[in-house]
Every structure is written in C-alpha cells, then in structure tokens.
Design goal:
By secondary structure, the chain is of the alpha/beta class. It has two domains: about 120 residues, 3-Layer(aba) Sandwich (Rossmann fold); about 100 residues, Arc Repressor Mutant, subunit A. Helix content is about 45%, strand content about 20%. The protein is built from nine helices and twelve strands. The strands form three sheets. The protein has a five-stranded parallel sheet with strand order 2-1-3-4-5, sandwiched between helices. Strands 6-7-8-9 form a four-stranded antiparallel sheet. A hairpin with a 3-residue loop joins β11 and β12.
C-alpha cells in the first residue's frame, strides 16, 4: 500500500483527500501545518507528498526547499488557492514535481498521484532488474543517462533530479542535436494543463544547467537557440 502525506491547514480539504485517497487504496498521513508536515516527511518516508502552499509555521515553499536541501527527493504535488503564475514557477523552482490550483476534483488529484507514482515505480523496478538495464545508457560528454533506472550521472556523480528535471533531460538527450521549441518540450514533458506556460520549461532548463554546466552563462551542453528553443549537444572537443 503506497503512503501519501497530505499537508493542508483546511480540515475540509484534509478530510476530502484522505477519504478519496483511502478509497483508492492508499495509506494516508495528514498534517495541518508545515512544520509537522516536514517532520512527517523526514520520519515516515511517504511515497508522495501533497503539499499546500499557504501553511502556518512553515509555508509549502519553505517545506519543499528544506526537504530538497536534505536530499529528500519524495515527489511533491503542490496545491495552492492562488492562481498566481509567480507562485507556480517558484514552487517548481524549489523542487515540486507537479502543481494544482484549488478548487480541484479529488479524481484529478488521484490521477496525478498515480501518474507520479507510476514513474517512481518504473525507476524502482528497473533499478533491480540487473546488468542488462545498467548497460543501457545515453552518453553525451560527461553526462550519462540510464533510462531504465530514471538516473543520470555527471562526471560519475549521480545527479539529484526531480522527476520533471529527469524527464526533461532524458527527452533532450533522446533528441540530441535537435532544436526543440519550448512548446514541444512543454507538450512532451508536461502533457496537460501547463499549455502555453513556457516559462516552466525555462525554469527547468536553468536547473539542469546548474547541475551540468561549469558556466551557466556559457553553457556547452544545453544550448539556447534564440527565437526557437533549446538543444542538447556534445561539447566540442569531447
């Protein structure tokens, strides 16, 4: 039984999500403030966290930031009552894997949770499948991507990536040397309601550059093609 941690300061939201998630077969933990939610994420090892943005004691942004600083990579689905594009971008910058605006339907939340957990399960299953999968990789310069393990390494060091960062990097690598527009990347990696919100792509490209580029202002792996989009290419001389 997969364990879901729901952190929200509205009792009605907690009750609604707890009931529907349990009906869908999940074990559910709840917290009504950010500090308790952070502590439960650290000690109870949930499979996924549904995290409200506006919380007492610690807000959702701070909880997300602190967990990622501790290398706790539990997938986070962030909720907010504010249809605020800045909050959306900032939440994803801090390491949230997905984002939903209130009001929402419980069925949609469950669908998002299941989609995220499917990707995590693929990673877990294939990590234990043996040497065959370990040998299947994409190599570009000092970057190595293991598609069947949902892992990437740079200079032999494992990259700490959110699911979306990994999926974006993998898609760029699959299309090595090909210019991909922001809309193409948005459609391929975020295949639902972020349509047209291409700044999300820019945020994640910036995160990837911080992890694989020596100089993010002069990238040699992920190039910007002005007026078009991005491409991942082999660094010259390698």
């Amino acid at each position: 039984m997969k364990k879901v941690l729901v952190v929200d300061d509205e009792q009605s939201i907690l009750t609604l999500l707890k009931y529907n998630l349990e009906q869908a077969g999940f074990e559910v933990l709840t917290a009504m403030d950010g500090l308790e939610g952070k502590q439960l994420a650290e000690t109870m090892q949930p499979d996924i966290m549904i995290l409200d943005l506006m919380l007492p004691k610690l807000d959702g942004m701070e909880v997300c930031k602190l967990l990622r600083q501790q290398k706790i990579m539990t997938p986070i689905l962030m909720l907010t009552a504010k249809d605020d594009e800045f909050d959306k971008i900032l939440g994803l910058e801090l390491g949230a894997d997905d984002y939903m605006i209130k009001p929402f339907s419980p069925r949609e939340v469950i669908a998002r949770v299941k989609a995220i957990l499917r990707r995590v399960q693929i990673q877990s299953d294939n990590s234990s499948d043996g040497q065959l999968e370990e040998n299947q990789q994409i190599g570009i310069g000092s970057l190595k991507i293991f598609p069947h393990k949902y892992e990437a390494f740079f200079n032999e060091i494992r990259l700490e990536l959110t699911l979306k960062e990994y999926e974006l990097l993998h898609y760029l690598a699959q299309n090595k040397n090909r210019v991909l527009t922001r809309d193409q990347l948005l459609s391929a990696v975020w295949n639902y309601e972020f349509a047209g919100d291409t700044r999300i792509v820019d945020v994640h490209i910036s995160h990837l550059r911080e992890k694989i580029e020596e100089d993010t202002k002069k990238p040699i792996y992920i190039k910007t093609v002005r007026g078009l989009g991005y491409k991942l290419e082999e660094p010259s001389g390698q």
